[in-house]
Amino acid sequence: MNLDTKGDAAGTPHNSAPEDGTRRSFIKQAGGILGLALAPPLISQAERLTAFSKTVEGVSTMTLKVNGTARTIQAEPRVSLLDALREYLDLTGTKKGCDHGQCGACTVLVEGRRINSCLTLAVMNQGKEITTIEGLAKGEELHPMQQAFLKHDGLQCGYCTPGQILSGVACVQEGHATTDDQVREWMSGNLCRCGAYPNIVAAVREVAGKA
Amino acid sequence: MDNEPAFFETNGPGTGGIVGQPLDRVDGFAKVTGQAKYSAEYKLPGLTYGVLRTSEIARGKIQSIDTSVAAKEPGVLAILTHLNLPKLAKTPNDPDSKKAIGAPMGFLPLTSDQVHYAGQPVALVVADTYDRAVHAASLVKVNYAVEKPVVSFLDPKAQVFDPEKVQDGKTPGHTRRGNPQEAFAASPIQLTATYEHAINHHNPMEPGATTAVWEGPDRVTVYESTQGVTRTQKALSAMLGLPTEQVRVVTKYLGGGFGCKGSTWPHTILTVQAAKAVGRPVRLSLTRPQQFTSMGHREDQHQTLKLGATREGRLTALIHEKTSTTSPWDNYAEPNSRIINLLYNCPAFESTYQLGRANVMTSTFTRAPGEAPGSFAIECSMDDLAAQLGIDPLQIRLLNYADKDPTNGKPWSSKSLKQCYARGAELFGWSKRNPKNGATRQGRYLMGMGMATASYPVHNNQGTARIRLYADGHALVQTGATDLGTGTYTVMTQVAADSLGIAPDKVRFELGDTRLPTAPNSGGSVAAGTVSSSIYMAAQDVWQKLTKLAIQDKKSPLYRAKAADVVAEKGRLVLKTDKTKGEDFMALMKRADMPDIEGSGQGKYGAGYETGRAPGPADSGHEDDKGGHSMHSFGVHFCEVRVDPEVGTVRVTRWVSVHGAGRILNAKTARSQIIGGSIFGIGNALMEETFRDPNLARYTNASLGEYHIPVNADIPDMTVEFIDEHDPYINAMGVKGIGEISMVGVAAAVANAVFHATGKRIRSLPITPDKVMNSLAV
Amino acid sequence: MNNFSYTPAATAKEALGLRKDTKEAAFIAGGTTLLDLMKANVEAHPQLIDINQLPFKGIQETADGLRIGALERMSDVGENALVMQQYPVIAEALLLSASPQLRNMASIGGNLLQRTRCGYFRDPAFPCNKRNPGSGCPAQVGDNRNLAILGTSEACIATNPGDLAVALVALDAVVVLENAKGKQRRVPLLDFHLLPGTTPQRETILEPDELIVAVTVPAAAHARKSHYVKVRDRASYAFALVSAAVGLEVQGGQIRSARLALGGVGTKPWRALEAEKMLVGRAATEETFRTAAAAAVRGAQPREHNRFKVEMAQKTLVQALQELMAS
């Protein structure tokens, strides 16, 4: 079915960094910052300098490894992994439902483990393998979990769906999909307001059965 | 053509065999791959971010508002307050303008220094990144002259009054049929019960979101998370003072709505004004806490139901009173009395609404508005009547079965409730129910079985659709409807495929844009019936045009046939009398050198359909057809619960729903929708409650962590069936719609099962463990 | 959130040194409490010090029990074979906490520092003595359905929301802390959390220049035979209305040692020492359990909406003990 999902999105790439106002955008360099006079004697100068060399402040360059590709953004350290994906990389398949770890819509896999991307910072996740819903299918060939969600109608509005699917993939990998009740418990970190739960259980169980 | 029929004759809708099939969602691929774009996901050049700053207090006056610190934050582009909001042509603050706008609330924040409710927007900050806007919003300093708020209708300070009408003028404040007071007084069986309902919030997973782009000084496009692009367009154009064609509203994907996205709320127009102020696109997504104070809620309410009956269990009188909280400006109450009035055969009825004004925003329709809480009252009381008389709960309902609409004596356009009862009871194993309450144990648990009837009216409405059929065999089908996740994309693709006699994958179906033919709001269960009928009618228009072409075409096998003798069947025009004689549309169009042909159709739903009368404005409420039929869908829910008698936890362990709702367009998505509505109702029954602080009138649990909606582990496998029902009176497709009825009666079915399990009746929703535990301690 | 700076620390010394430089800096491990509260404007920190690279890892059997590194994730501890077999109450408490995603993120140390879910604390629009000392406690006469009945004060009735801490406090766990000088001290978890009193803003004895290194739990028969029961408003992904952690050593039907703790009812993870005494030396019967449960809630001071917790806590304790005996 050819549904127009992109027709209205102006496809201009948006890699421009937010303006940093009066502040200088930088990664603090060793020796670049003083205030060392207040250094407590117990910590060696060398250690302090190492720490400063790693401090990220203001708009900075970050590299995220998303779906196998290294992507660079210019963002402040306060940017959550979720917002980095949605607002800086235009990977809007990862959803914001609550922004507080209370709904699971933002679930992604980091180093193969499911997490809530709203409660971690992009800057903390540099160098880690991040998998989002956009990285699950191989071209037009859907991941078995995506296929099972279609077949069992494990979705209605679709907003919790990417998180459900990634959670489902992890649930099977973890070995937590051996019974219906186990799936119900281990998929409870993903709220669905449309109420697709029984169908989600069917989808996850089917994939687990094939695994 | 002299003898051109008013309706082009086919063998009827759905003859292609695609309608009704459990087709996978056609928008499923986009949704499972993350490609579906919701309203806060459009990437636009120069995009900026809007964030609301909302009021901490519930009542008072803004004495001063200092934006200087916030404005100095890097990236901040504008801060709108009541002091500088660009002027609007109309605001809902004036009652007449409110009507013209179609606004749900008679107050627009940022138009005065008054604070009327906690969470009311007091500023809107725009910045170049989301985080900067959020932080800057927190730096706006607001000084309030604080006044003591009125918290709810229960607050001693609240003035409770008798409104002339409620539900924004749609429902009379007082209704009477027969002599209910006398009948009740004379009844040998008299039951009086009060039911309490907590505040509920819709909480769609996608929070309200608006992305506004001004393409010129007087032309704006708004990507809006709404259940109705047309209604939003109307509201915005009225407020902006722009012709509707200069306001485009787009909603391609909607992350749930359940009623809260059925109206245009303040954040939308404020975002549009912010975009105008900064001269760049502005995207605003409500935070989850803001969602609780931005798009309405189901109001806190008490209902008292007096039920009179004979010793045999026949109803003699129903007297219903509802008191609920409303806002300082509006008389909103969901119409609970509607279902109580019509569900059973009862000669006398009275309903009264009372309202108490408090410092809260206006409540709004929430899935099955009125029918959901109304059914809780009537269906619990019917269960009590059954228990008191020692009659099976299903039997008491059959005893009072309404063979015609008791409110007006009209016949039903269709009603399959008896079949629903019978099939549901069979699937559920109702006959195994122990007639004694509190007597079924499973280990240390108490088990209970409950049931309740569901019903929902067919509201009158209308919509239009356009079809462009191409000679290469595919079609473009367009209508400005929305898909909340209910399956509109999918079922309309099926309807179009069947009506045109082509495969579903040859149909490209587009919705969610005011540039498309207008369609009603997706709400009140009207979308499926209205939109499917408009598509069906548009297809008929195409066939009529093609017939004209064929019978004038010397090379056509139908040359010189009478139009009335031609029918369309599986993509072919054929003679009614000899179906081997005819041709497919592709051959006909190619020969005529016609690359495509367009047709349009108007679908009428409910009262407007049968009488041919143009219905009133969209969602004007239920009105029985002038042709003499009462139009409703009916169904039944059966529920089994397991109650922990020690700590009071309730788990639903089995569920069966059977509905008669006209034609079912897709067996798979329809089942999902019924399951979803039942789960929504289970949340309402067992856990959903927003708590308003009794002194400060501010919500204390405005989050998905503390406002509990059901999780996967709360829900068992569910069985859903439909009774095959043909209703010729409601619309061309015979579709009643199932979005609301799926939730009606659910809370009562759960409560009745708890009653059966424990022998204790809990009339206060939600039925949380503490209430069950306390009921058993007595 | 305010625009903080971010520094990953490689060693405890480095992390604590940075904290000394910037008093208001915060350590971040899983981030599930910290970022949640920063987004809600409940907390603001100019700097976040990432401690995830610190070597506070490992789930080990030691000579006298169990040692869990503070940076181990809840999910890994909850499904660790040693923990599941020898300390089931810990594993059960962990797997009944939060959601699989949050458990994959949240660290053990961070979980012990989890802050209350009191709605007044979590929303800066409300007065709250814990967040803003001296501003008042509207919860006393407001929405207190899920607030504490034990250890409350006029200033604060916020519930400690933990599950893990309840299991750990039952089993006499000890928190290992390290300061900037590299010096370690061991504090029983029982003494780690503070009662609100007049200073509800102070929640633990953790000093600003200290980090949680590990938690140790002594091996014991009552640890091997232990169990966690959690009662909540929905079946999963919810904080406890009431929870109970119980451990028993029973020989010949007689209780030799007992460990009881309650969650969801106390302003800190609530060890029921008096109730334990009423079990030891008695027969493991329902009657004994009921007597002990009554002792566990003695002195409870419920408010308008949380009266039910007095009874629910007792029933949950009895249920946990019965299930333990049946297992």
UniProtKB/TrEMBL annotation, chain A:
Gene3D superfamilies: 3.10.20.30, [2Fe-2S]-binding domain. Transmembrane segments: none annotated. One of its GO terms (molecular function) is oxidoreductase activity, acting on the aldehyde or oxo group of donors. InterPro entries: 2Fe-2S-bd, 2Fe-2S-bd_dom_sf, 2Fe-2S_ferredoxin-like_sf, 2Fe-2S_ferredoxin-type, 2Fe2S_fd_BS, Aldehyde_Oxdr_Iron-Sulfur, Beta-grasp_dom_sf, TAT_signal. The keyword Iron-sulfur applies. It comes from the Bacteria. Pfam families: Fer2, Fer2_2. Residues 60-136 form the 2Fe-2S ferredoxin-type domain. This is 2Fe-2S iron-sulfur cluster binding domain-containing protein. Keywords: 2Fe-2S, Iron, Iron-sulfur, Metal-binding, Oxidoreductase. Residues 1-23 are annotated as: Disordered.
From TrEMBL, chain B:
Keywords: Molybdenum, Oxidoreductase. Residues 598-629 are annotated as: Disordered. SUPFAM superfamilies: CO dehydrogenase molybdoprotein N-domain-like (SSF54665), Molybdenum cofactor-binding domain (SSF56003). Residues 33-148 form the Aldehyde oxidase/xanthine dehydrogenase a/b hammerhead domain. GO terms for molecular function: iron ion binding; oxidoreductase activity. InterPro entries: Ald_Oxase/Xan_DH_a/b, Ald_Oxase/Xan_DH_a/b_sf, Ald_Oxase/xanthine_DH-like, AldOxase/xan_DH_MoCoBD1, AldOxase/xan_DH_MoCoBD2, AldOxase/xan_DH_Mopterin-bd_sf. This is Xanthine dehydrogenase family protein molybdopterin-binding subunit. It comes from Hymenobacter metallicola. The lineage of its organism: Bacteria, Pseudomonadati, Bacteroidota, Cytophagia, Cytophagales.
From TrEMBL, chain C:
Pfam families: CO_deh_flav_C, FAD_binding_5. Keywords: FAD, Flavoprotein. GO terms for molecular function: FAD binding; oxidoreductase activity. SUPFAM superfamilies: CO dehydrogenase flavoprotein C-terminal domain-like, FAD-binding/transporter-associated domain-like. PROSITE patterns: FAD_PCMH. Residues 1-222 form the FAD-binding PCMH-type domain. This is Xanthine dehydrogenase family protein subunit M.
